[in-house]
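hey so i finally got around to running the thing on that chain from the lab meeting. sorry it took forever, my laptop kept dying and i had to restart like 3 times. anyway pasting the input first so we r on the same page abt which one it is
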Amino acid sequence: MNPREGYLRSGGYRLHYLLWGGSGPKLVLLHSMGMDAHGFDTFAEALQGEYQLLAFDILDHGDSEKPGEPVSLHDHAEIMRDGYRQLGFFPNVLIGHSVGGMMGMILAAEHPDDLRGLVLVDIAPFEITGRPARPPPPEFFSDEEEARSYIRQRYPGFTPEAVENRMRHAFVRDEAGRLRLKATGDAIRPSLAVDLWPYVERIETPTLLILGGESDLVTAATLTRME
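ok and heres what got predicted. didnt touch it at all, straight out
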């Protein structure tokens, strides 16, 4: 079943969202930088018989508005919160991947009554400035095969179905007919160098941390401290 699609205004910005399911516990899904709400399609389709699921495009991603200037991570998290509260989607279990998980840490600390649980996918507090930055994506792609090749290289673990999901939802054509990525990350990237430990130390919400089998984002020392 295809998700229901909608828009709302939060923090002065236009947010795009997807809804699956009609009953059951509420799950809020926040994606990583460079992705969008449709990145959860397969996950949500598998669970929509048992849960209600809500996924947002964070600002400057997918079909949500692109701010004219950077938005702090804290403000971005509050914008997501206002969005799910407008839709009556609380209390919920918040599932956040990467940047979405960073927002989840903030919301669990600041608004514990909103969350019944927090799931962090491949993210924990860490020192951003010490990590090498990924090279920016090309400004545009001349055709679909060039874009598809980029997706395969950028996400080597993606299944063919996941690659085609990105082809359907991650790009927009400019006036010259070239494909451009919808997500630039410009609105959120400057705010990522933030110390999340003061938030994490206040979290009382039951929290599950899921790490990729080949991921090196979360060190053993960080895991020990989080326990």
